[in-house]
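Q: Two folds, back to back.
A: First:
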Amino acid sequence: MAETETTITVGKNSYIDTEEANEYFAGRLHAESWGQADNETKEKALKQATKIIDRQPLRGRKTNPEQELAFPRYLDTEIPVTVKEACCEEALALLERGNNQRRKLQQEGVQSFSLGNMSETYAAGAGKGLLSQEAKELLQPWLLGGVFIT
């Protein structure tokens, strides 16, 4: 069977497959968006979440320079469970709010806008990086942090 555009291949285009992600979400509150999505949409969300994770500034290096994804890292031989969970959380965030107008404006560099009596102002860099705070926390051991210089 030829691999289609939406086929998940763990370690090649995703950190987790839909079956394992379904198991993760079965034990999580407020995951209705995941449960309502069809398999093709779930696969797309997991693949996109993987791409977003791989674009983050990460500590260290890949275990094998030939591997396609950023994880495993260092001397690990498998993708850490917390990275799989972060992929799930980011996929859920993409399903819930990844395509909303506010995020699009932020990604385009808009820092403020007004509509009638309503106005919003965004911090510089808003709309970039991970959508999910949960994913950020799960990936924290691998994320490069800023350094304060005096």
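A: Second:
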Amino acid sequence: MTRSIDYGNLMHRAMRGLIQTVLTDVSQNGLPGSHHFFITFSTLHPEVQMADWLHERYPEEMTIVIQHWFENLNVDPQGFSITLNFGNSPEPLYIPFDAVHTFVDPSVEFGLRFETQEFDDDDEEDDDDEPPPEDKPRGEAEVVSLDKFRKT
């Protein structure tokens, strides 16, 4: 059996760990300076918890803003809960890190984007229909320039 390093999943895990660390700090110390977050997540994820009326309004994806008013921000290894104000109505949410599509802090021009994924309770490890790595034909290595990922 051929073993391979799954850099994509390792990177996603590291990026979600960064979000967890940042939100944990904010839950303990508040938002520093002008920092604020736009977090887009899949409302289809089976572990997302939100009011029915919000789910009806955002049946697939939702973006929340953590800035001026929020409370009860609690972070655990799998996700975070927060209460946000929707039209003068405080609503609690629970968002698993696996449901997050983007995390942006525009105050410092920082952002993370995750590939979209399907959520399947039966087979969480196998997100695609690609054959296992040992069945893939070996091709030539591709050199990727990091310049295309840099902001100008």
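Q: And?
A: DSSP finds two helices and seven strands in the chain.
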